[in-house]
Amino acid sequence: MPMPMTRFKKLTAREWSILRMLAKGVIPALIAVKLAISVKTVSQHTQSIAKKLGVENRLLLKRMLVAINQQRDPL
Length: 75
What we know:
By secondary structure, the protein is mainly alpha-helical.
């Protein structure tokens, strides 16, 4: 069952940036370098993303991202 898009609307611009990078498989340490923030801040944003999307933990968030990427139409 697809996730309602209204949940994604709750994300901040920074959370969207991090979510996009996570979806591409970028590790938190590299995300931190690219965004000039600490790894702990990336972790806190990731937890916030998971909470807003109703996902229990980061592993489930990663699985959700993989599923979303598999559903995309590669145009």
